[in-house]
Amino acid sequence: MLRQVNGGPVQVIRIRRSDVKFLLVGAGLSGAVIGRKLAEAGHSATVIDGRDHIGGNCYTTRDAETDVMVHVYGPHIFHTDDEEVWNYVNSFTTFMPYKNRVKTTSQGQVFSLPINLHTINQYYNKTLRPAEARDFIENEIADKSITDPQTFEEQAMRFVGPDLYEAFFKGYTEKQWGCSPTELPASILKRLPVRFNYDDNYFFHAFQGMPENGYTPMIEAILDHPSIEVKLGTLYDPAMAEGYDHVFWSGPLDGYFDYELGRLGYRTLDFEKFTETGDYQGCAVMNYGDRDVPYTRITEHKHFAPWESHEGTVCYKEFSRSCEPEDIPYYPIRQVKEKALLADYVEKAQATSGVTFVGRLGTYRYLDMDVTIREALDTADAFLKHAQDGTAMPAFVMNPL
C-alpha cells in the first residue's frame, strides 16, 4: 500500500503472508542472490533477463572448437576478504585456488604487474633490496613537489614518478578511459599497488579463486530453487510490475526511466577472439601499456583454469571505447557531468515506489563480484526487515552518490 510522506509517494510493505511475489530484472549475481534469499524466506521470485543466458557479464561457457572455458564478457577473478561471501559462493560450487599474475608489454619489454621489486629492478636495471627500492622510489623517482594529488596523473607521479607512470599507466589509462589521465580523479589510484618485494599476486585479499566449472553453473545452482522461475530472452515491460509485490532492478538506472533525463556515461569493450594451438602468451592477462597499441590487453582463457589441459587456446584482444545505446555498458565513468546526472536520477528513483535498484548498473558503481554478492545479501535482508516492520523500503540500500 502507499502513503504520502513529505509530499512524495513511499511504498510501505507489510508482509503477513507467505508466497509474496517478487520480480527481479537481471539474471546476474544480484538477481540470483536476492531471488534465492527471498525464496528461502518462503516467497516467490521471478527472474527475467533480456539475454538468452543467465549470469550477466559473469557468463562462462565452453568454446566449441577448443573446449576451453571462456569468460565471454571478459575475465572475472573472484577475490574477497569477506569470509561470509566466500563461504556463500563455495556452498554452490567448488572454487579452485587461483592467483592473478598480470604481465604488461611496454617499451619493448615484458614486466610484472602490479609494480613490485622485480618490476623496479628490471626497469631501472638495478639489484635493489626492499628498503633500497623504497628509498630509491621515494627520494629519487617520485615527484615530491606534489603534496595533494588531485588527478590520476598527479597521484601516479607522486608515488611512482614519471618513468613508471609513462610505462605502465599513462597509455593504458588513455585507452581504457578515452581521456587524458589529467581529467580523471586521483581516487582511481588512491590504493595504487606498489610492492617492495617480489609478490606478483595482483590481489591482496585473503580468499582468491576460480569456480572449477565456471560461473554459469554456480549461478544456475543459486537459481535452482522451487520458488524461483527464470525467464530468459524476456525484456522488462513496466506493465509486468503490476503482478508483483516489489521489483528489484539490476539493469541500468537511467534505463529504468527510459533515459528520460539523458544517458549516463559508460565505457564498453569490443572483443576480438582468436584461437591458436599450444600456449599463445604464457599467462592469463597481458596488458599493453603503449598508446600506439590499440587494444588494452590480451586475455588467454585456458590460463584462468590451470587445473585443465587443452591443446588449443582461446584469446581475446580487448578494445575500450565510449558506450553507445546499443552496446553493453561495462565501466561507469562517474566524472563531473555524469555525477550531476546521476544525482538527478537518484532523486527520481527515491520518489518512485515499488522498486529497489541494485548491482553495478542499478547503482551506477563499479562493483567487484564479492561486493555485488554482499550488497545483494544485505538488500534481501533489508527488504525482509522492512516488510516485517511495516516500514518503507528505500530505492537504494547503498547510496550511489
How does this model look, in words?
The chain has 401 residues and is of the alpha/beta class. Among the domains are: 2-58 and 211-261 and 333-389, Rossmann fold, CATH 3.40.50.720; 117-189, protoporphyrinogen ix oxidase, domain 3 (Orthogonal Bundle). It contains ten helices and 19 strands. The chain has helices at residues 29-40, 83-90, 117-124, 130-141, 152-177, 215-223, 253-256, 336-350, 359-363, 369-389; strands at 2-5, 8-11, 21-25, 44-49, 60-62, 69-71, 78-80, 95-97, 102-106, 109-113, 207-211, 228-232, 246-249, 266-277, 285-288, 297-300, 312-322, 331-332, 355-357. Strands 10-9-15-16-17-14-18 form a seven-stranded mixed sheet. Strands 12-4-3-13-19 form a five-stranded parallel sheet. Helix 1 (29-40) runs parallel beside helix 6 and helix 1 (29-40) packs parallel to helix 10. It is globular, with a radius of gyration of 23 Å. Residues 1-17 have low confidence and may be disordered.
Q: How much is the average pLDDT?
A: 93
CATH superfamily of the domain at 2-58 and 211-261 and 333-389: NAD(P)-binding Rossmann-like Domain
Distance from N terminus to C terminus (CA atoms, Å) equals 28 Å
- Our count of helices gives 10
Which parts are unreliable, with pLDDT below 50 for 5 consecutive residues or more?
Answer: 1-17
Q: Describe the strand arrangement of the main beta sheet, using strand numbers.
A: 10-9-15-16-17-14-18
Q: So what's the overall shape?
A: globular
Q: Structural class per helix/strand content?
A: alpha/beta
CATH architecture descriptor text of the domain at 2-58 and 211-261 and 333-389: 3-Layer(aba) Sandwich
